[in-house]
From TrEMBL, chain A:
This is Cobalt transporter. It comes from the Bacteria.
TrEMBL record, chain B:
Pfam families: CbtA. This is CbtA family protein. It comes from Paradevosia tibetensis. NCBIfam families: CbtA (TIGR02458). Residues 1-23 form the signal peptide.
Length: 59, 256
């Protein structure tokens, strides 16, 4: 039991990786989409300099 | 959910630190160029044509975006915008840090999904990959641009930007994962393809923004980006390994 649990913690199962990785990926893209690509003018104006500095297409 | 919690905190902490470092470099070398370029915004460039025309048989497209923010990009007067000075810097730093955390989450997620662990030792390679995928490759077709510079349709540029980032990322990951000739061949094709297709080109209009500002801006923006990625990669790797070790020893104690 102990060995099995340890092995599982170190060698993660595929479904664990898919769930955690998928969640983190979606969260990351939501942040990038909001900061770099959202068309709302208030978001655009607040993140304006960041968009230019990071080379995101702006305007 | 332990895995998610671990990569989430590793990404948030490393994104915060690397994002703040990037902000410092930006405020030093990049933001002043944006402010200076804005003084030229709205000015007609010498001998600018009165009406904007597309010379090269451009496909039918809408100019809604440009009409909403006409030549020289005038912000929508009704929409909120931060006051110049401390407020503007605050929102820029906030946006920098949030974008940095977003990049860190994507890096951590890809590492878990593809099964290529990110560690303190190989973090610099991940950072280099992130820099190539999200900055260098898109900049090869769409150089970082200052406000007031002529540019192609926004939607087309955004699409090309994402297509390039995804194709370049897929190409690099395939090479890193499989390390064989087939992967290198397919990766090379994926990395080259967006540039063979070509980025949407700006209309042939003179720009009111002086050339020396534009070149300094492109170089400074990419340099600030490099600083960010070379901190983010190793730091994310270090925290990821550290949290994984802490978790493993905790599990051992519980089950001992």
């Amino acid at each position: 039991m102990t060995t099995a649990t340890q092995t599982q913690t170190i060698n993660l199962t595929l479904s664990q990786r898919l769930v955690a990785g998928g969640l983190a990926l979606v969260l990351g893209f939501v942040l990038l989409g909001g900061i770099g690509f959202a068309s709302d003018m208030r978001v655009h104006n607040g993140a304006h300099d960041t968009r230019h500095a990071l080379g995101f297409p702006c305007h | 959910m332990n895995l998610f919690r671990r990569i989430f905190f590793a990404a948030v902490l490393s994104g915060l630190a690397a994002g703040l470092a990037m902000s410092a470099v930006q405020q030093w070398r990049v933001a002043p160029l944006i402010l200076e370029a804005e003084t030229y915004e709205g000015q007609e460039a010498p001998a600018a044509p009165a009406t904007h025309t597309h010379e090269d048989g451009t496909a039918a497209h809408s100019h809604d975006a440009q009409e909403a923010a006409p030549a020289g990009h005038v912000h929508d007067e009704d929409a909120w915008a931060p006051q110049d000075g401390a407020e503007r810097i605050f929102y820029t730093v906030l946006a920098d840090v949030l974008a940095a955390i977003g990049f860190a989450l994507v890096l951590a997620a890809v590492s878990v999904l593809v099964g290529l662990p990110i560690t303190a030792a190989n973090g610099i390679v991940w950072g280099l990959g992130g820099f190539i995928v999200f900055q260098l490759a898109p900049a090869f077709g769409l150089p970082p641009e200052l406000p007031g510079m002529p540019a192609a349709d926004l939607g087309a540029r955004q699409l090309w930007w994402w297509g390039t980032a995804i194709a370049t990322g897929a190409g690099l990951l395939g090479i890193a994962k499989f390390r064989n000739w087939q992967a290198i061949g397919a990766g090379a094709v994926l990395i080259l393809l967006p540039h063979l297709i070509g980025a949407p080109q700006p209309p042939h209009e003179p720009s009111a923004v002086p050339a020396h500002l534009a070149t300094a801006f492109a170089a400074s923006a990419l340099s600030a980006g490099a600083v960010f990625w070379f901190i983010l990669g190793p730091l994310l790797g270090y925290l990821n390994t550290r949290f994984a070790k802490a978790e493993a020893s905790q599990t051992r104690m519980v089950h001992a």
